[in-house]
Write a structure and sequence with these properties.
By secondary structure, the chain is of the alpha/beta class. The protein has one domain: Divalent-metal-dependent TIM barrel enzymes (TIM Barrel). The strands form two sheets. Strands 1-2-3-4-7-8-9-12 form an eight-stranded parallel β-barrel. A four-stranded antiparallel β-sheet has the order 5-6-11-10. α10 links the parallel β7 and β8. About 40% of the residues lie in helices and about 15% in strands. It binds manganese (II) ion. The site of manganese (II) ion (MN) has 6 residues, from α11. Manganese (II) ion binds next to α11.
Length: about 375
């Protein structure tokens, strides 16, 4: 397992690389270019600059999150071929720069979705929150306005203003696009990019839908074990794999996360792990919490045990954190709570490894 930390770049992240370098166990950052329009080829010089910046801070750049998928690809429009060709070229350029994994999602219109970016928790910290009732009663535009007003001035990835300005048109385009269409459009995309991935040794890791159910009537397909199995079967190459995000998939209580890790990780199909906790409420609401198992609904020990049991060698990051200690940062992406999360994950990993080594095979077969 290689521990990483998401970084939004010199201009868009208030956390400097030297601070990330001091988090115990972190070997690299998960980066991206945020100023290249979705669908365009990433310029070589910008990739090289990002790589130089990260490496001169003593960190690696082996994971990109995300190279976003143009909406025309998800919609299956004739114009998708041009965007797919651009994507293939971006993959070649990233692979030549040493990138080994590309995380992406295939969610129509919206990326991750919350109703509140700073819901106060009992200890006075705050975190991202999903109010199920509000998600049903508000229009997409109302949610966008309420989210945009509370982002501490940051542009949130997936919620770029220019994209959201065309909401109405996008919704009209998705009329008549169902789950099977989305699977077919994903297959068309994956079948086109995987030969490049195999040639250049760079893995695709699709991120689950966040939350893992339909919103505003839009289809969503990266939601549960059955759908993950279906989407992996679209192309048998192990270069076509998953970003296993426990926080996203864990919002649905019927998702058995350790079982999914054992199944898909055991098949060599998990390339990137997002590890975090959430707390679910009976009415369908959920809040993000600290990584600690007892603070939320997900047993992080069992998650890490599953990764350990399959001999996970991929990349991991703590995903989101709360805002604590008065930090004012990008919602979900402060320094302190994510660093605490990493230390907790690393502690679990070391303890699980020690118990296997010291107690022998009996525990290993658990
Ligand atoms: Mn995630």
């Amino acid at each position: 397992m290689k521990m990483t930390f998401r970084w939004f770049g010199e201009k868009d992240d208030c956390i400097p690389l030297w601070q990330i370098r001091q988090i115990p166990g972190v070997t690299g950052v998960v980066g991206a270019l945020y100023d290249v329009p979705v669908g365009e080829v990433w310029p070589i010089e910008k990739i090289a600059h990002l790589k130089r910046t990260v490496e001169s801070a003593g960190l690696e750049l082996e994971v990109i999150e995300s190279v976003n998928i143009h909406e025309d690809i998800k919609l299956g429009l004739p114009s998708r071929d041009r965007y797919i060709e651009n994507y293939r070229e971006t993959l070649r350029r990233l692979a030549r720069a040493g990138v080994r994994v590309v995380c992406y999602n295939f969610m129509p219109i919206f990326d991750w979705f919350r109703t509140d970016l700073a819901r106060e928790l009992p200890d006075g910290s705050n975190a991202l929150f999903y109010d199920a009732g509000m998600a049903c009663s508000l229009t997409p535009q109302q949610v966008v306005e309420s989210v945009a007003g509370k982002s501490n001035g940051f542009t949130l990835p997936g919620w770029e203003p220019e994209r959201l300005a065309t909401l109405e048109k996008l919704f009209a385009q998705y009329k008549g696009v169902g789950v099977d269409d989305l699977f077919a459009n994903l297959k068309y995309f994956i079948d086109a990019v995987i030969p490049v991935c195999e040639e250049f040794d760079i893995r695709m890791a699709i991120h689950p839908d966040d939350p893992p159910w339909s919103i505003f009537g839009l289809p969503r397909i990266v939601t549960d074990e059955a759908n993950l199995a279906r989407l992996l079967a679209l192309n048998p190459s192990t270069y076509h794999g998953l970003t296993l995000c426990t926080g996203c998939l864990g919002a649905n209580p019927s998702n058995d996360l350790p079982a999914m890790i054992r199944r898909f990780g055991g098949q060599g199909r998990i390339h990137f792990a997002h590890t975090r906790n959430i707390k679910r409420f009976p009415n369908g609401d959920f809040t993000e919490v600290s990584h600690l198992s007892c603070d939320g609904s997900i047993d992080l020990y069992e998650v890490m045990k599953a990764y350990h049991d399959i001999g996970f060698k991929g990349y991991m990051r703590p995903d989101h954190g709360r805002m604590i200690w008065g930090e004012k940062g990008r919602p979900g992406y402060g320094l302190y709570d994510r660093a605490l999360g990493i230390s907790y994950i690393n502690g679990l990993w070391e303890a699980i490894g020690q118990s296997v080594t010291r107690d022998g095979a009996s525990k290993r077969s658990f």
